[in-house]
Sequence to fold (332 residues):
Amino acid sequence: MLDDGLRSRGMRDLGPEAMRRFRAAERVFLDVAGARRYQEIRTPTIEPLHLFTATSALSPQLLDRVYSFLDWDGWSGERVVLRPDGTVPAARWYEQRWQTAEPARLCYVQQVYRFEAGEGERERWQCGVELFGLPALEADAELLLLARDLLVAIGGRELRFELSHAGLIRAVLEAAGLDPAERAEVNERLLNADPERALAVAAELAARFPAGSAALRLLCSVDGTGAGYLQNLRAALLPVVPTISTALDELQAAAAALDAAGNAYRLVPTTASNIEYYTGLTFRLLADGTECMSGGRYDGLGEAIGGRAVPASGFGADLLRLAAILAGDEPR
Fold:
């Protein structure tokens, strides 16, 4: 029997049974998305590196985890990467190929590649949807309910959203007088920070922005649910950061859409994503406490790659995780 060392670390084989599960989950995903008029696309495995660096899709942490190499062409060449993300290539496709003024509803199933140390997975099958050209309040509600419907169809149970908004902490950092480099550094420290670390960051910022100390503490260390929590956010933030009103309105509209649909959610003010191109609502969807999908709004992405200024948002999931839920191998 051949040694398993002949298979590249972090990659996986999918045998007949695994492929049956894969195709079953893929069919559910494409059927649910297709019923809501999302059309399937596929983008190249190899993309130019600058497509991702120009859009801030790669934070310093993620930049060290992409597979990049020189696409050699005689005495010249271009630095390219194995696609580390599905959203940026979909945005490029939209900017180059979509010819009408109608909103574009796109979906895809394809591999993404990111280096993970040890035995971590380096190749993942990502399924995702992207929505271009629909205003935030309408599009955010559509995507949240689509994500919910997809996970219900897969068989997920005890569903709960975590809602954030990239504009909240961004507006506070701007009000505190931080320059773009400082804002990026602070945001990097806050991404997925535990409460103790987040409070330490809030204390540092309060020294530069004393008027916002209460707001910073609320943003960095307190989460909650429902209208009362949102009212507390407004009361603490608006007097010291008037520019934050749009972000609060969008967060409130998303919460109202979930309330109307009877979905549980929690509001987590600091963004819970390690992707820096998000500009608006971000969310995670959990089943039995395990994250299954995540996404958000990225209105500036098209312009960053030289395209149109259009509202845009989407979400993605690990298709093999969805396949495991569908087969009953993970909490449902």
About this structure: The chain has two domains: 13-157+296-332, 159-287. The chain has a mean pLDDT of 86. The radius of gyration is 20 Å.
